[in-house]
């Protein structure tokens, strides 16, 4: 009888372990993981033309490092406000990494907003891609735990009194929204350009900031159906989402991208600056 009970217990434990393993492997990927998976889509990769060469040297920005909660350090690029202020913008790069285009765009935002601190986060830990093949590998290599540690480290770096806005493009568009979620009550605004939305309504309910989404109607991946679902989810969560859609393609706002659309970029940028100004007071 005792042997029978032991055998039954072992069988039960085996079945339980198998079921847990099956549940884990079948768990729905996070929004950021879903976007990273697109790197395996040949069409997605080919839609990202190799960026035009761009060199930018800022006279006001500087490289910084800060500690992350996983016991490591993270590198970033900072534009310090001229006068002390608790207004911060955390910028998240495209799938290419923290390159000169991101720094140049951040300096432009810095100048157009006025007195604000801007920090360009580096979720690739120092790596920058110049080919679509390398960009895909780097994007897929990002682990959610490490990316969140980099973001949490930046939130700790700016301090508990900081009002935090976020902005990102492509890979960084989705991570801009995730950063706002991680910022909690410190969140002031979120701007995302053609990034993967969060699809968990319960998580969206925890947002403490309005979201501005700049999307492209010709985008085959973050397409009009994805955007419409995001609008429905945000409405269900009771949160404010402002959407602007352009007759352009994924990556339209990057001037180093051969599919750059200056008209759509100018319009989206105008909405972005106005949105941030209203919330970074």
How would you describe this protein?
With 281 residues, the chain is of the alpha/beta class. The protein has a single domain, classed as Rossmann fold (3-Layer(aba) Sandwich), CATH 3.40.50. The chain contains ten helices and eight strands. Helix 2 runs antiparallel to helix 7. The N terminus is likely disordered.
Question: Top keywords for this entry?
Answer:
281 residues, 18% strand, alpha/beta
Give the domain tally.
1
What is the CATH class designation? Alpha Beta
Outline type:
globular
Radius of gyration: 21 Å
Assembly form of the protein: single chain
- Count of helix runs: 10
Average pLDDT, to the nearest integer?
Answer: 91
Which residues sit in consecutive blocks of at least 5 with pLDDT less than 50? 1-25
Task: Write down the CATH topology.
Answer: Rossmann fold
Describe the largest sheet. 8 strands, mixed
CATH architecture: 3-Layer(aba) Sandwich
Beta strand %:
15-25%
Strand order of the largest sheet: 1-2-4-3-5-6-7-8
Number of strands: 8
Structural class: alpha/beta
Ends distance:
74 Å
The run of helices and strands is HHHEEEHEHHEHEHEHEH
CATH superfamily: Alpha/Beta hydrolase fold, catalytic domain
Helix content percent band: 40-55%
């Amino acid at each position: 009888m005792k042997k029978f009970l032991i055998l039954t217990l072992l069988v039960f434990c085996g079945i339980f372990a198998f079921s847990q393993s099956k549940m884990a492997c079948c768990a729905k990927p996070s929004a950021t993981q879903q976007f990273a998976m697109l790197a395996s889509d040949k069409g997605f990769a080919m839609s990202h033309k190799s960026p035009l060469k761009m060199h930018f040297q800022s006279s006001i920005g500087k490289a910084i490092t800060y500690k992350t909660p996983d016991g490591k350090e993270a590198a970033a690029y900072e534009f310090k406000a001229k006068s002390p202020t608790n207004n911060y913008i955390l910028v998240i790069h495209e799938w290419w990494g923290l390159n000169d285009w991101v720094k140049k765009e951040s300096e432009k935002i810095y100048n157009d907003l006025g007195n604000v601190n801007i920090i360009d986060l580096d979720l690739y830990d120092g790596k920058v891609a110049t080919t679509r093949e390398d960009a895909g590998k780097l994007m897929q290599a990002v682990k959610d735990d490490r990316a969140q540690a980099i973001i949490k480290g930046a939130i700790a770096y700016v301090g508990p009194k900081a009002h935090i806005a976020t902005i990102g493009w492509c890979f960084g568009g989705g991570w801009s929204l995730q950063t706002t979620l991680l910022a909690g009550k410190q969140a002031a605004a979120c701007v995302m350009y053609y990034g993967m939305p969060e699809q968990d309504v319960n998580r969206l309910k925890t947002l403490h900031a309005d979201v501005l989404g700049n999307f492209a109607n010709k985008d085959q991946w973050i397409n009009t159906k994805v955007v419409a679902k995001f609008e429905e989810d945000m409405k269900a969560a009771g949160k404010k989402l402002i959407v602007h859609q352009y007759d352009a393609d994924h990556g339209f706002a990057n001037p180093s991208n051969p599919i750059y659309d200056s008209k759509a970029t100018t319009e989206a940028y105008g909405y972005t600056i106005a949105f941030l100004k209203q919330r970074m007071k």
